[in-house]
Predict the structure.
Amino acid sequence: MKKQKNQRKFKDEVKKGDKVVTLGGIHGKIAEIRDSVFILDIENGGKIKIEKSAISMEYTDQVNKKS
């Protein structure tokens, strides 16, 4: 339950400009936040819409530690 609470807190605190990784392994930067979705900027100027539940706290933390 503690892990779920941390995951929910993480998703609520994500803001525009943050680099994230999805559960499917897609890397991107938050371009826009809507009700239940994020719009991610991906390579070559592409954008993708994903559900907030698709963001991985663990993968995002790992990627941001390496940067």
Summary: The beta strands are 19-21, 27-33, 37-41, 47-51. The first helix runs from residue 2 to 13. The chain has one domain: 2-66.
